[in-house]
Design a protein that fits this description.
The chain is 30% helix and 19% strand. It is an alpha+beta fold and 620 residues long. The protein has three domains: 151 residues, 3-Layer(aba) Sandwich (D-Maltodextrin-Binding Protein, domain 2); 171 residues, Dipeptide-binding Protein, domain 1 (Alpha-Beta Complex), CATH 3.90.76.10; 233 residues, Dipeptide-binding Protein, domain 3 (Roll). The strands form seven sheets. A seven-stranded mixed beta sheet has the order 10-11-12-1-13-23-14. The chain starts with a helix and ends with a strand. About 4% of the residues have low confidence.
Length: 620
């Protein structure tokens, strides 16, 4: 629809410009050692404190300037070194709980910590001893301690996200007063807790106490970007909180002049509202196996584009090397006609769902919305959704069916196919069943075939972004087959506070992603917690809640997998977050100056694997 019209306009523009073009492409990228990256955003950030924003390009920049303790590999389930070199669970004496081949000994872990006398798991982390901040100051575990202590102290951080990341860390503040200690270093009570740290290791060893949840370490290891204590401690106070909407001069300077431990540093002189320039650190502690730099590119220059078509045009005309934005599959045919392009059509990880407001607060209930409280009514609407048609028409085939249990089939250890056997495969049979259900609940129809309630057409509004109007348009077609009218409603800039947390909606589109690394946090957030959480429709299911709680707290890894499989059909039977599709991530890069781009599940072609494998094209 709209996307196809814009594509035709772009093709026409390319044809006209090519007719008058003289000379080869690539002259618009003058520095041979700079990777020019286009990014489609409304604007670029002006502050680079990594905890401030998770929107737009800000997380990408933060992840290049700063490091977390480890990164998580979804394929292997392993934590890869970053600031941290190694980690393991330990017993009360600080001795590692490992098998002979060096892996976590889950049987012994369960044996030790199933004792109700323990209210925590103890974790030991050893960091690299050769890391420096970008200003040359050595990074030590005191920076780690400071970062996590700050994250748990809302009086200083004023950051709700930091509290969520550290929710399973048994280090707690109440109104700025430490009431439970769960982080230990040589200088912060390790010996008193029974953990002996030799003086020569005092800068590299830290212990954490976490809830008895196997996934508790994941957000601590991979979500919290570590901050330099010497930079932030002198200026952060209850009066000048880290996350400040009105920062004083000292805070503002630190926001705009970041000191990080990542592989890149911000060139503040060259960066501004239209471009962000990062320079590779020659002293970055992680290297390739042969000791050479982890990244071959010297400089990354991000260039702002506010329209996708302008960015695509810039790429095709040689102004940029990479487009760090997922584009519509409509462009695949255009890209196929071009030379020197690498097209990444990566499998997606986010599942697009349709969420029902099945339990609104009392003040937001009305007769039509009350229909959504009926699981059979929701089942009928789920039956009318044809994922294959949505993938064909909305994604132009660049996507996959999503499981009703909302777990990706590629996660073979704990995906449960039984969740996808609740509804008939044949679409006509599904429509027949849906109409038979609705004929019992709301049998009256108007002249156009739409169902009526108390003489009024049943109409639901679906909250979405402008880019999701196509999805709603095709859902309109599908729901009309069962006599239900749906309409698009713009969700605006702050949908959570405006609509979702306050129950002021009928249905909403929501992208979800569940995996072993996040279910301990995300399952409760999506299906259990009421209030300001991702459980927008306020689902209450005691049996499901009990299963999620047991899954969270079991220390038996096999039992955890079993419970994950049991939970998926329970989620599917609620018809609460109904899957529409999983979209591929389509992105593109030029290969006339650099090759070695990698396709990574759920990511654009601008990803860490690509950066580590890029190499210059000889003579270009």
């Amino acid at each position: 629809m709209t996307k196809r019209l814009m594509l035709f306009l772009l093709v026409g523009l390319l044809a006209v410009s090519s007719a008058g073009c003289v000379g080869g492409r690539g002259s618009h990228r003058p520095d041979p050692n700079t990777l020019y990256v286009g990014s489609v955003q409304s604007s670029f950030p002006t502050a680079y404190m990594p905890w401030l924003s998770r929107e737009g390009i800000a997380p990408t920049i933060a992840g290049l300037l700063y490091d977390s303790l480890f990164s998580y590999d979804e394929e292997t389930g392993e934590y890869l070194p970053s600031i941290g070199r190694e980690w393991y669970y330990v017993d009360k004496d600080g001795k590692p709980i490992l098998t002979e081949d060096g892996h976590i000994d889950y049987a012994r872990l369960e044996e030790i910590y199933s004792d109700p006398g323990y209210d925590h798991l103890a974790v030991k982390v050893i960091i690299h001893d050769n890391i420096t901040w970008s200003d040359g100051v050595p990074l030590t575990v005191e920076d780690i301690y400071y970062s996590f202590d700050l994250a748990t102290n809302h009086a200083l951080s004023n950051h709700a996200g930091a509290l969520a990341w550290t929710s399973d860390l048994k280090h707690k503040y109440n109104n700025g007063v430490l009431i439970e200690k769960g982080i230990f270093t040589y200088d912060h009570g390790a010996l008193e807790q029974g953990y002996y740290i030799p003086p020569e290791e005092k800068d590299t060893v830290i212990y954490f106490h976490v809830n008895k949840v196997l996934g508790a370490v994941t957000p601590l290891f991979s979500s919290v970007l570590i901050l330099p204590k010497h930079v932030w401690e002198p200026v952060v106070s209850p009066q000048n909180q880290l996350n400040s909407s009105s920062p004083n001069e000292e805070l503002l300077y630190r926001y705009t002049h970041p000191v990080g431990s990542g592989a890149w540093v911000l060139d503040t002189a060259e960066s501004g509202s239209q471009q962000i320039v990062l320079r590779r650190r020659p002293d970055y502690h992680l290297t390739k196996p042969d000791g050479s730099p982890l990244y071959a590119v010297d400089t990354i220059k991000f260039i702002l584009y506010q329209e996708s078509n302008v960015a695509i045009y810039a790429l095709l005309k040689g102004h940029i090397d990479v487009l760090d934005t997922s584009v519509s599959s409509n462009y695949l045919l255009l890209f196929a006609k071009e030379k020197d392009l690498f097209i990444s059509n990566a499998p997606g990880t986010f599942t697009q769902t349709l969420v029902f407001n099945l339990n609104p607060v009392s003040s937001e209930r009305n007769p039509v919305r009350n229909l959504l409280a009926d699981a059979e009514f929701r089942q009928a609407m789920a039956l009318a959704i044809n994922q294959e048609e949505l993938i064909k028409n909305v994604l132009d085939g660049a996507g996959e069916r999503a499981s009703a249990g909302l777990m990706r089939p590629s996660l073979t250890d704990f995906y449960n196919p039984e969740a996808d056997k609740l509804l008939p495969e044949d679409y006509e049979a599904r429509l027949a069943l849906a109409n038979s259900i609705l004929d019992r609940i709301v049998p009256e129809k108007d002249a156009s075939g739409y169902r009526l309630l108390n003489g009024q057409r049943i109409t639901f509004k679906i909250l979405g972004s402008p880019g999701e109007q196509d999805v709603v348009s095709f859902l309109q077609i599908q729901f009309k087959k069962i006599g239900i009218d749906v309409q698009y409603a713009a969700k605006g800039a702050q949908p959570e506070s405006t609509y979702l947390y306050t129950s002021k909606f009928d249905l909403t589109l929501q992208g979800v992603i569940f995996s072993l690394s996040n279910v301990d946090i995300m399952f409760p957030a999506h299906f259990t917690t009421l209030g300001r959480s991702s459980n927008y429709g306020r689902l209450v299911n005691d049996k499901l809640n009990q299963a999620i709680e047991e899954m969270r707290y079991t220390l038996n890894l096999n039992r955890k997998y079993e419970l994950l499989k049991q939970i998926q059909p329970m989620i599917a039977q609620e018809y609460y977050k109904v899957p529409l599709y999983t979209s591929n991530v389509i992105s593109v890069a030029r290969t006339d100056r650099f090759t070695g781009y990698q396709v990574v599940e759920g990511a654009t072609v601008f990803n860490s694997a690509s950066l580590q494998n890029l190499r210059r094209v000889e003579g270009r």
